[in-house]
Design goal:
alpha/beta; seven-stranded parallel sheet; two-stranded parallel ribbon; 13 strands; binds nicotinamide-adenine-dinucleotide
Length: 344
């Protein structure tokens, strides 16, 4: 039987590269479209090293409709899309809102137009728990209210969810699965691919591992006076390979027509809240390496605490987070050492 070809936009990025590996290992063909605005071409070699397969790669922006037309015409048999391509730095989105609205919204519009024209069966969209803001009830379920976004980045996720829902409502023939990620961390156990931020990391784990490696002086914990057991913020940290596997399940579900619903929403998290201080201590215990850190003031826009109720994903999608946090943190450390040319 011919393999399904899945178009992975942003497939050279952090979550996209791990998902590409899982798709290839599950027997799919993968075509990547990435403009490399936040990734490195060597990621393709990493994917090939792990899987023994080299996905087709187009260095193009999803915002370029003509380029997308050409790719869809050339590939002919794209059955599904996983749309990761987006700009994702919350702070930068406050400084450059138009860049974020253009990049994150035009790229989705182009994908949806291509899907209708080229008979693509479904799209998996990368959304985020930021759509819930600070939920009143924890753990948060998919039916929790969507609160006003606190940044242009967060707003693009909400708008994208609405665009997909409106297209489905208008009767388009494809399906959509919207995955609301909690906090993806870690990397592939081989340490061949991982999170590769450019410049000063915006996310906790790359900053933490760089501080542990001595690249940064120290990690700042933004606030220890929140209404949480140790005063620091609480998040639901999800291993990136577990997260990648949720995409494979979502693709299968769409292609096999497993759902009567045309658009579905799933929380992709572990169901456990972990504070920033707990995360630091777990990292130190798991790796034996100290993390120099200090307590700083609260950071504007940070949510106090959020973690997922993943029951819907567990029961309906048939996916569950399985990797223990200490193992995820060891993988993150292995990756940090690897990019510094050292070994664990
Ligand atoms: N990492 C997180 O914490 C997190 C949490 C929730 C949701 N998400 C979402 O998941 C998706 C993937 O995130 P990530 O962490 O892997 O980010 P990433 O920056 O590592 O990957 C995104 C990739 O998309 C590419 N890209 C950006 N704009 C593009 C365009 N117009 N055309 C083609 N390629 C483009 C970048 O070069 C990059 O390789 C994003 O949509 C992000 O908003 C991420």
């Amino acid at each position: 039987m011919r393999k399904h070809n899945i178009l992975v936009t942003g497939g050279m990025g952090y979550i996209g590269s791990h998902t590409t590996v899982e798709l290839l290992e599950a027997g799919y063909d993968v075509t990547i479209v990435d403009d490399l605005s936040n990734s490195n071409p060597t990621v393709l070699d990493g994917i090939e090293k792990i899987t023994g397969q080299r996905p087709t790669f187009y260095q193009e922006s999803c915002n370029d409709l003509d380029a997308m037309e050409e790719i869809f015409a050339k590939e002919k048999n794209i059955s599904g899309i996983i749309h990761f391509a987006a700009s994702k730095a919350v702070g930068e989105s406050v400084q450059k809102p138009l860049l974020y609205y253009r990049n994150n919204i035009v790229s989705l519009l182009n994908m949806l137009e291509m899907m209708e024209k080229h008979d693509v069966k479904g799209i998996v969209f990368s959304s985020s728990c930021t759509v819930y803001g600070q939920p009143k009830q924890l753990p948060v379920t998919e039916s929790a209210p969507i609160l006003p976004a606190t940044s242009p980045y967060g707003n693009t996720k909400q708008i994208n969810e609405e665009i997909i829902a409106d297209a489905i409502h208008a009767g388009v023939p494809y399906k959509a699965v919207i995955l609301r990620y909690f906090n993806p961390i870690g990397g592939h156990e081989s340490a061949i691919i991982g999170e590769l931020p450019t410049g000063v990391p915006q996310n906790l784990i790359p900053y933490l591992t760089q501080a542990a490696a001595g690249v940064r002086k120290e990690l700042t914990v933004f606030g220890d006076d929140y209404d949480t057991p140790d005063g620091s913020c609480i998040r639901d940290y999800i291993d990136v390979v577990d997260l990648a596997k949720a995409h494979v399940r979502a693709v299968e579900r769409m292609l096999n027509n497993e759902s009567k619903e045309q658009v579905e929403y799933f929380n992709i998290g572990t169901g456990h809240g972990v504070s920033v201080l707990e995360l630091i201590h777990t990292f130190e215990k798991a790796t034996g390496v100290k993390v120099p850190h200090k307590i700083g003031p609260r950071r504007e826009g940070d949510i106090e605490q959020v973690w997922a109720d993943p029951t819907h994903a567990n029961k309906v999608l048939g996916w569950k987070a399985v990797k223990p946090l200490d193992e995820t943190l060891r993988n993150a450390w292995k990756w940090q050492l690897k990019i510094r040319g050292q070994q664990m």
